[in-house]
Write a structure and sequence with these properties.
The complex is a heterodimer. Chain A is built from 21 helices and 16 strands. By secondary structure, chain A is of the alpha/beta class. Chain A folds into four domains: 121 residues, Rossmann fold (3-Layer(aba) Sandwich); 107 residues, Nitrogenase molybdenum iron protein domain (Rossmann fold), CATH 3.40.50.1980; 141 residues, Rossmann fold (3-Layer(aba) Sandwich), CATH 3.40.50.1980; 62 residues, Proto-chlorophyllide reductase 57 kD subunit B (Helicase, Ruva Protein, domain 3, Orthogonal Bundle), CATH 1.10.8.550. In chain A, the strands form four sheets. In chain A, strands 12-11-10-13-14 form a five-stranded parallel sheet, sandwiched between helices. Chain A has a four-stranded parallel sheet with strand order 3-2-4-5, sandwiched between helices. The longest helix of chain A has 17 residues. The radius of gyration of chain A is 26 Å and the shape is globular. By secondary structure, chain B is of the alpha/beta class. The chains are: A alpha/beta, B alpha/beta. Strand 1 of chain A pairs antiparallel with strand 3 of chain B. The structure holds iron/sulfur cluster (SF4).
């Protein structure tokens, strides 16, 4: 057993639901008790979907156990077929049904429905949501695209598939649009985008493309590997997140398609590079950033933060283990040990310890950052309703890079404002406690209570009253850093007390 | 009128029903027989209702020194988080012990694991006074005996900690039944009232503190000694015995009621305290049991009732004459339908409820119009078809259905808000009406959909 307070991922059947909900003409019959229907609200509320997810739950009850849960499943599957007339169905069990072992796949086959019925085996007590999405997509592709490589007609125009976007994915909706535009500029035709918007019959056409674009390795990695092996479709696995990765992505697509990358590389709307170089952004230099999320997002975010915005990465981690090796390698490149965990309390501790100025994470880290009074931007699922904006807001491509610059820089104290805050910090109405004006009131640090107890972590070093008073004159957004540096300096000098002198000695010691 | 098959005979005693509905108050005269005769559309198909675990979301905020440990799966943890997602995000007083592959291998293992988890939890939260071990579908199916586990752990941690088990599983409970199961289990822990104790009132069902305080003041004015169950602190469970008179604050507490009755308590049937009439009727049940003089009763309730009526009047213009359709959710549906039809002039087309306690809701059912269809259980696709063909002015439904119905042009009210917000009593009557009025008001403001 594992004690869980909040979780980053749902059970694997929620991953299957994300695939089914993204598609059209597919229906999912899930053997599950009534409470499991909560999953519908993830889509209708968080993502504001205007239709119910295409899923029928059998909602068996205690009185059905041991007698007719299998019949219940068959009746539900038949009714679902009759009512929704899907082109294909997926069937499976949730955690409870897995225990009663009714074999939904076998039961559905016995119904002899006139459409493909794909049985999903998603072990609820071992696996989680991302894995469930990947497995579901893989099973769909494998069943519907067929095993035999087909002869492809020599095409006039190169074509690719876009693989991976699902329902409830972080900005998948807009990433698909952005990447499709890039492909258009390159003269590459999109054969199928899946699961997002695809019908089962579209999956049968996947092998007609020349190559695959794997937008989200967490979801499409397995299916793309199978398509490569079985149908000989190579895959572009670079996620175009940030200007540099977008350029690398374009080069790679152009290479596989045999086209000139220039039309897509010339992107007049790409501003994040200049925004990052403009003088105001000097203040972003080596801002301390803690990055946590879905593995590939986190890796990409750290790379953009470090290479394109000049931040310093002080923490990097992921909640899903499938790509732990990659996350560890990336963390090492920043001289860090990766944090691979799905225990949000552990993440909270790590963030508190690293004392970043900005947290890039999921909705969990947003809440953690709020509690620790840190700036934060969401970069990864799981995300909440406000992370599904009405406006176009991709993370990928050149426009995506613009969005990253805006959403990561805005929560930070901006350049000139940083001076103004320092200049007016003793003013009775414009002071530290009031917080920067462009942040909402909740972002201001509580005046006294949240002021970290100096040297609380290291009882060997005490702050004198004068030093504490001096520390409080330092603007709040650098105060944590000053305190940390001073304590490290004092420790390195073997001092037991921090005086005003120590504070300034430390400052000169650490001045870069 | 509804075009689906239903019990052909109209209630035989339509005139009596109408007469009763017109009377005020109906409580004392509501003969059980009328509600028994009202036809009920019973359905058994796909349900779209939360399981009992969900009630932990408000129970853990009510009982402030208790911790709820669900023994379940990742699904259970995800459900709790999704239902509570909009609430304050801190380390809450609930968690899930997620069972994994190796726990399913053998019972001895699972019990040892549970003990380890409880130890871990208590180290982190030494302030806990009561620990609820909450069963889920997986724990029920593998027959993990949480009652025994509670007993075992109790001997280890007594007297510092009380450990109580109940089931919130979706195979046995829907949504608010989780509170019923919890309170029924807690009732067994209550001390016995001495045989010669003088009568005292027990208000049963978790209420927001502010509402509880309002009621406490009213009962004090009436001279009725009152205790509330559950108490805010789990070490203050009121004593129960033949001197206990029970007034239910929520209609979904059938199991708890029979547990209290088996300990000698007497139940005071009443309508539920929603709106001016409902609250008056509910208070009157207690006043009559204590022989409070009618004049004193009037004097005590009149100011609150007048406030409630004023507040309701503000919403009546918008709501009167509008039709409402309830999908089953919290079991509050019959009471809310009574409130909306009797006090705000709405027309209830269908009142769906996951489970109908006929006895408990009899005073409410007697006041529903005979043409209102009462349905119990659910087959969500059939019910959606009925709703679409009736096109009610307002549909009360769960979060999974609301946006899809809005997209079809139907105004909806999320039912979950009705259990998460303070809606009982005179001073919340206006807020309760406001919850139903807001979606309609909003449509007016926005005009035709863009
Ligand atoms: S229905 Fe059962 S398995 Fe599903 S969340 Fe509720 S208790 Fe857990």
């Amino acid at each position: 057993m594992k004690l869980a307070v909040w979780t980053y991922e749902g059970p694997p059947h929620v991953g299957a639901l994300r695939v089914a909900t993204a598609m059209r003409g597919l229906h999912y019959v899930l053997h599950a008790p009534q409470g499991d229907t909560y999953a519908d609200l993830l889509f209708t509320m968080i993502e504001r979907r205007d239709r119910r997810p295409p899923v029928t739950y059998t909602t068996f009850q205690a009185r059905d156990l041991g007698s007719d849960t299998a019949d219940l499943f068959k009746a539900a599957a038949r009714d679902a077929y009759d009512r929704f007339q899907p082109e294909a169905m997926i069937v499976g069990a949730s955690c409870t049904a897995e225990l009663i072992q009714d074999d939904p796949g076998g039961l559905a086959r016995a119904l002899d429905l006139p459409v493909p019925v794909i049985a999903l085996d998603l072990p609820s007590y071992q696996k989680k949501e991302s894995w469930g999405a990947a497995e579901t997509f893989f099973q769909l592709v494998k069943s519907l695209a067929g095993p035999a490589p087909r002869a492809r007609a020599a095409a006039v125009q190169p074509a690719c598939n876009i693989l991976g976007p699902t329902a409830l994915g972080f900005r998948h909706r807009d990433d698909v649009i952005e990447v499709t535009r890039i492909l258009e500029r390159l003269g590459v035709r999109v054969n199928v985008t899946a699961p997002w918007g695809a019908r089962p019959q579209d999956l049968a056409r996947l092998p007609d493309a020349d190559f695959n674009v794997v937008l989200y390795p967490e979801i499409a990695g397995v299916a793309a590997a199978w398509l490569e092996k079985t149908h000989g479709l190579p895959a572009v696995r670079i996620q175009p997140i940030g200007v540099k990765a977008t350029r690398a992505f374009i080069e790679e697509v152009a290479r596989l398609a045999g086209v000139d990358p220039a039309p897509a590389l010339d992107a007049p709307g790409s501003r994040s590079g200049w925004w990052s170089r403009s003088v105001d952004s000097n203040y972003l230099t080596q801002k301390r950033v803690f990055v946590f999320g879905e593995a590939n997002r986190a890796i990409a975010a750290a790379r953009v933060a470090a290479d394109e915005f000049g931040f310093e990465i002080v923490g990097l981690g992921a909640y899903n283990r499938e790509f732990a090796r990659e996350v560890r390698a990336a963390a090492e490149s920043y001289g860090l040990a990766a944090l691979i965990t799905d225990d949000y309390l552990e993440v909270e501790r790590a963030i508190a310890e690293a004392q970043p100025e900005l947290v890039l994470g999921t909705q969990m880290e947003r809440h953690i950052a709020k509690r620790l009074c840190l700036a934060c931007a969401v970069i990864s699922a799981p995300a909440h309703v406000q992370d599904f904006p009405a406006r176009y807001s991709p993370q990928m491509g050149f426009e995506g890079a613009n969005v990253l610059f805006d959403t990561w820089a805005h929560p930070l104290v901006m350049g000139l404002e940083e001076h103004l805050l320092a200049m007016f910090r003793d003013d009775f109405e414009f002071n530290d406690a009031a917080g920067p004006s462009h942040l909402h009131a909740g972002a201001a640090p509580p005046p006294v209570a949240a002021e970290p107890e100096p040297a609380a972590a290291d009882a060997a070093i005490v702050w004198t009253a004068e030093a504490t008073a001096e520390l409080s004159k330092i603007p709040f957004f650098v105060r944590g850093k000053a305190r940390r540096n001073t304590e490290a300096f004092a420790a390195s000098q073997g001092l037991s007390a921090i005086r005003i002198d120590t504070l300034y000695d430390a400052r000169s010691h650490f001045t870069r | 009128m509804p075009a689906w098959p239903r019990t052909p005979e109209a209630p035989r005693n339509v005139t009596l029903l109408t007469a009763l509905a017109a009377r005020q108050p109906a409580r004392s005269a509501a003969p059980e027989i009328t509600s028994r005769e009202r036809p009920v559309l019973r359905e058994r198909g796909q349900r779209e209702v939360f399981c009992g675990l969900t009630s932990i979301v408000w129970l853990h905020r009510k009982i402030q020194d208790a911790f709820f440990l669900v023994v379940g799966s990742r699904t259970c943890a995800h459900l709790l988080q999704s239902a509570a997602g909009v609430m304050i995000f801190a380390e809450p007083r609930f968690a899930t012990a997620i069972m994994e592959e190796r726990d399913l291998a053998g019972m001895a293992d699972a019990n040892a694991e549970l003990d380890r988890i409880v130890d871990e939890l208590l180290q982190r939260r030494p302030d806990i006074k009561t620990l609820f071990l909450v069963g889920s579908c997986p724990s029920e199916v593998i027959k993990l005996d949480l009652g025994r586990a509670a007993h075992r752990l109790s001997t280890r941690y007594a007297p510092r900690l009380r450990i109580v088990s109940y089931s919130g599983s979706g195979i046995e409970t829907t949504f608010t039944q989780g509170e019923d199961a919890c309170l029924a289990a807690l009732a067994a822990e209550a001390p016995a009232a001495p045989a010669d104790a003088s009568p005292s009132l027990l208000v049963v069902g978790s209420l927001p503190d502010i509402v509880e305080d309002q009621f406490a003041r009213l009962f004090e004015a009436l001279g009725v000694p009152v205790a509330f169950f559950p108490a805010r602190r789990s070490d203050r469970i009121p004593a129960i015995g033949p001197s206990t008179r029970v007034l239910l604050a929520q209609p979904f507490l059938g199991e708890t009621l029979s547990r209290l009755q088996s300990r000698g308590a007497t139940w005071l049937p009443a309508a539920f305290p929603f709106g001016a009439e409902g609250t008056t009727d509910w208070l009157r049940a207690a006043a009559e049991a204590w022989g409070v003089a009618p004049a004193r009763f009037q004097a005590c309730v009149a100011p609150g009732r007048a406030r409630a009526e004023r507040a309701l009047a503000r919403h009546r213009a918008l709501l009167a004459g509008k039709s409402v359709f309830f999908f089953p959710d919290s079991q509050l549906e019959p009471s809310l339908a009574r409130f909306l039809t009797r006090e705000l002039g709405m027309r209830a087309l269908e009142v769906g409820t996951p489970y109908l306690h006929r006895d408990i809701t009899a005073p409410e059912l007697a006041q529903l119009a005979p043409e209102t269809v009462l349905s119990e259980g659910q087959d969500v696709d059939l019910q959606l078809a009925r709703c679409r063909s009736l096109r009610p002015d307002l549909t009360v439904c769960g979060l999974g259905l609301a946006n899809p119905l809005e997209a079809e042009g139907l105004a909806t009210k999320w039912s979950i808000e009705l259990v998460f917000s303070p809606v009982h009593g005179f001073d919340q009557a206006g807020d309760l009406a406001g919850l139903f009025a807001r979606p309609l008001k909003r449509r007016e403001l926005l005009g035709a959909a863009a």
